[in-house]
Amino acid sequence: ASPSSLQGSELHGWRPPVDCVRANELCAAESNCSSRYRTLRQCLAGRDRNTMLANKECQAALEVLQESPLYDCRCKRGMKKELQCLQIYWSIHLGLTEGEEFYEASPYEPITSRLSDIFRLASIFSGTGADPAMSVKSNHCLDAAKACNLNENCKRLRSAYISTCNREVSNFERCNRRKCHKALRQFFDRVPSEYTYRMLFCSCRDQACAERRRQTILPICSYEDKEKPNCLELRNMCRADHLCRSRLADFHANCRASYQTMTSCPSDNYQACLGSYAGMIGFDMTPNYVDSNPTSIVVSPWCSCRGSGNMEEECEKFLKDFTENPCLRNAIQAFGNGTDVNVSPKNPLFHATQPPRMEKTPSLPDDLNDSTSLGTSVITTCTSIQEQGLKLNKSKELSMCFTELTTNIIPGSNFVGSPDSVD
Amino acid sequence: LYFSRDTYSEKLYVDEPAGTPLLYVHALQDTRGEVPHFHLGQHLYSTYRSQSHKNDWFQINEDTGLLYLNQSLDQRALEKLSARNGGFPLRTIYLQVFLSPKPFQEHECHWPSCAKVMLFIINATMPACSSLKPREFCFLETGLSFRIKENKPPGTFHQFRLLPVQHLCPNISISYQFHRDEDLPFHSDKDTMEVSMKHSLDREQKEKYELIAKCTVRDGLREEDVMAPFPVTVYDEDDSPPSFPTGINTASAIVEYKRKEGTVLAVLQVFDADVVPSSGEIQRKYTHTMLTSDPWVTEFFRVEHYPNETSYTSNGSRVRAMMHVYKLVLNRSLPITESRSFQLEVLVNDTDFQGPRGALLLYFNVSILPVSIRFPNNTYYFSVNRNAHRYAQIGKVCIENCKEFHGVNVTYRLQSPSTNCTALGIITTPESTTGTLFVNDSSVLQRSECTEMQYTVVASDRQSKKQAKTLLIISIEGNYFPEEEGCPISCAVNKKRLECEECGGLGSLMGTCQWTFGDGKGISKNFSTCTPSLKTCPDGNCDAVESRDLHICPQDCIRGEIIGGHERGEWKGIKAGYGVCNCFPEEKKCFCEPDDDKEPLCDEVCR
Amino acid sequence: ARVRHQPCGLRELEVSVSELGLGYVSDETILFRYCSGTCEAAARIYDLGLRRLRQRRRVRKEKIRARPCCRPLAYEEEVSFLDSRNRYHTVSELSAKECGCV
Amino acid sequence: ARVRHQPCGLRELEVSVSELGLGYVSDETILFRYCSGTCEAAARIYDLGLRRLRQRRRVRKEKIRARPCCRPLAYEEEVSFLDSRNRYHTVSELSAKECGCV
């Protein structure tokens, strides 16, 4: 959740960020700032960054810039000059953190919309959900494809990436992956998430549905390859490209499992996590379902930890952020079940009615008994978006999927994951 | 010196008093006699390194590695820190601890000489002792994980006690031990609660210890055990020389028919018990050189190196290692006249391994056999029907072992003693090194005076100019029947069996097209269609003759539109079709549709 | 050549105006151009699909055409003639100028 | 309007891919748009003349069309779907985008 949703008192004298393109313009218009920014870029471009950063001029430039909007500037997913914005962001932040950090700050502004917003939009726009009686048994991913096919924009962009990714290039080259990735990026950038999430995160009861879900991004072209690279090498390849680096940082920022929150998601915002997961599709780090097992949701980039040498631990930690990430899994399940978390600091106390299974938080040792873990139970007050009764005709009673969340507060700490605290 | 962990963590409640001990960091020796000194970074960070603040609250004992609160962290301090956290209340603070004597750079904190400390801020006062659960006395939620370099001196690498809790509740009795600690290389001291190594470790013996730590909490009469994983990863160094897994260091490489660039001639394997360097750098560190001064050898041969991670079982657990595969490969296609034998030595060098036996020699015994171009038969006999249309494929000729040849460019051509009765042509199919005989002038076949044709077939290797010849006798059979008017040039146009078999088309052997029945199973490879010859069309291969003219077999050669249920061939043609597939070569278009027009399609309003 | 496979194209015929049966009585002869031939090759998957839906009664009680037509794509502007009562008439778009499958 | 006199125009129908009878087996639902309706008002004098010549056997053994057709003037580029064997197919020009009498 972004600062805008915070109450005044909690802003802590914080300055709302401008986007980096705007911040760059502001800095360029101000001689002191523009000269310091030029100096800093020279400092950071120099051969031995550390000695350069230790010299007076570079320090002075850094101090000035830390007070300028450039320092806290962010970018927006899908904004007009997104790449330029990201290039400016990384030109500053890449220099300040020497070497590879495991987790990098996301250059994107925090996502404020929530899954419940998507469910609401989906129920207005799609208008072609399955009949409720039928939908309990129906294939939600098939319904999602139908909803897309019946929407002109979604159908056109879906067909664009499918025909691109499905086109054989030669006997040795299964397809043109670069074009396929570009078409996939356009699909996920330009089609509203009410449609794209339904195809990507639909919940499944049988193998056929799960295989359709796995096939959504045409993995044979966009994902699989002859060999699996080492995950740390794949990360390096991704971080060599500003867009991919930004999407990966965003994924970590929004999906990194945290034991300090209720949903295991950093800011208890499933939409933020799903949005950043979808944001990686069409890049080197494209993730996908690893199999068509309807019940266990395991997603992963196309890489392994073979050949890690002494970095196997770090490699496995990187991979587990995908394959064993309770935040990501909860978010996908939540979307599939049409549930969202509604945690607002004003009324921390909720009461439980009917607890479904909630994934354990990440780093708790297996033998941890429940008494100390965050006992959280989530109730759904309506069925999932796939099960919503969306009749074709105009009169749609808006069945919102809102969830009451009960929380057993940890004794001794008012440790109610306030939705706005970023871990 | 190196830290035994890359990240330490502890809980920090607001308003904990100055002086509260937080945790111990531990360093292990790279070489005996090293003495660690710990330094705290001047800055502390919120979630990301870019959001830093001056460190006024924490201090570390340079010698013991004890991290403690230098100044209490109160509400006001917490808000000041949050201001740089994008306006969000702060949940985690990161400190950096450096090891000297190595000079440290504040901007760079990476294991082994720097470790991060994560302090989880709990915006509440320290809970009362009685309210804490047994687990909270024993372990943190973030879990433990240790790194110990192999072959290094043993030392103390952990201290179990949770210092803040012990500081708060001194009279709670807590003890730690390893669950089932028989013959473990680690010792857990009951009093100091420190964990140390009994001896240095050898990764090639065991690289992962999945221990379980047991903590016993006694509070009056009550006693409770809490378990937690205690994983130790042994870090590798290049201490194993390369070796031959099966003792074999020699392979023979025989070159006969397969003389094409890229052909793999022989393979040898080298085993290395180490897994460093990682796959990203292994190609640079593991070098191989062909020990030859003959430029011809380096022109025609190359060695390819494929490092693959493998593993073996030792002491009941999996240990990773590397298997290096070396392939001797043809770097250029070899002429058929080339013939020689020699031994090629290849030096493989593990440049990372400090020791005498870091390099090995591979031996490839190469023998190149000459191959000749010759026809197995002196004379070939074929027959052709008088009604055959142009491009009808009469038969194939090929030199001995033609199917075996790779990388040899053989072409075929016809020579004819007489000029009047000559109707045939020949086309070379490069991949299979065969020559296909086809009707090139069908009008000759219609002349009754022509009853037989004689040719000499000449096969020649383009590179060496070597040639082979054989005699070809073609008998012309059957009577000529002029075709009905208005027949399309291409058999493929016809959509029904009747109209198919009443006409001929380019490539038809007997002067009439042939109808092939599909299996009627949806989009299938066996689709119904009208073809000039069932033998060659459709067969999913747009062969050398068919590719001369799209009218011959558009089913195999079409690149344009295919309308209706279908699957496209690899490059061209219809791989599978629904119902009947018919084509219009002029429009470069094919249709696949069931031919079940039982019901006349009324243009008017259907009831 | 077999009628069956003649592709759609422009044909022409010398006819008297009276033969056109438009009600004008005139012995003048004009060149009447028209479109004829098969449009088999011009079919699209649209036609295949529409045919199938028609056969399965998913499309009913509607006037549809599930096959391309060989029709004029352009017409000649006009032609004039003197009728048997010595009065001139001008008729537009009587002849096709260009044909195609639509 | 009564079916017989509905003017030529674009209609749409939700169909499953399998129903199109093209051989693809897929439960995906797509929007199939087609042209239907009458073109009576679009006839030209050309049609009248051609019909008369046909009746008088001046035009014989030819495939001719002496009435305008209600046909697509433009088609939708492509639609893609996943079949029951989890393979994607893309079909071009399946649906009409614009109709007219030709």
From TrEMBL, chains C, D:
Residues 1-102 form the TGF-beta family profile domain. The chain holds residues 121 to 222 of 222 of the full protein. Homodimer; disulfide-linked. Interacts with GFRA2 coreceptor and RET: forms a 2:2:2 ternary complex composed of NRTN ligand, GFRA2 and RET receptor. Also forms a 4:4:4 tetrameric complex composed of 4 copies of NRTN ligand, GFRA2 and RET receptor, which prevents endocytosis of RET. It is found in: Secreted. This is Neurturin. Belongs to the TGF-beta family. GDNF subfamily. Growth factor that supports the survival of sympathetic neurons in culture. May regulate the development and maintenance of the CNS. Involved in the development of the neural crest. Might control the size of non-neuronal cell population such as haemopoietic cells. Acts by binding to its coreceptor, GFRA2, leading to autophosphorylation and activation of the RET receptor. Heparan sulfate-binding is required for signaling.
